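Researcher: Here's a chain I'd like modeled. Treat it as a single chain, no partners, no ligands.
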Amino acid sequence: MSKVNSNQLLKTWSREVRRPRDLKIAESDKQIAELYEAKESMIGITGGNLFASLGGNTELDYSASPTVTSCSIDIGCLSIDHESFYFASSLLILNLFRPWASTAIVNTQVINGYRYAPKAHPGDGFMEEIDSNLVIRQAVLARKKLLTGDHLPHPQLRLKKGRTFTYNFTKAKNLILDNKSIGRHKAFSVEVFPHAIQVIVGFSN
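Model: Modeled as a single isolated chain. Structure tokens:
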């Protein structure tokens, strides 16, 4: 992948546009990835972690405003045995018997209602890897702070930004891609596609 200037990406992060006609709408993160794979360049979003992270409001009507705010977001590409899977929000890499001591690749601050990655930005050309070495007692305490994002920083939670991630485990991990399980795998890699698709959320300030 070519070198990406994250400062330039952030400068072109959002813009005001006229609402397109026949705009396809994604109701979940999984549907965002599916529409990206279908070669859509701009879509509306009405649900999911990305929608929540961007301050989306389900009470607003897309058709009510002639102008909307368009944001260019990154998409993650998971590669397993020459097969590609795309995701908009998160990839969870779970230990079967110790799920609290697992790894996540995240593109959004909010994951299923929790402020899992408070500094994540879905349009900076990076994703965040959060690697947990928590014991179960620490995990219970950290979970109580997830709603506000105060679980970070933590000495047993390693945070790293990156554009590529490669894994080769001795034991297979359960992979959850935008809340959907895609089975157990040992070897796989992740690449970030910067500004892969434009999304329109329900506001136009």
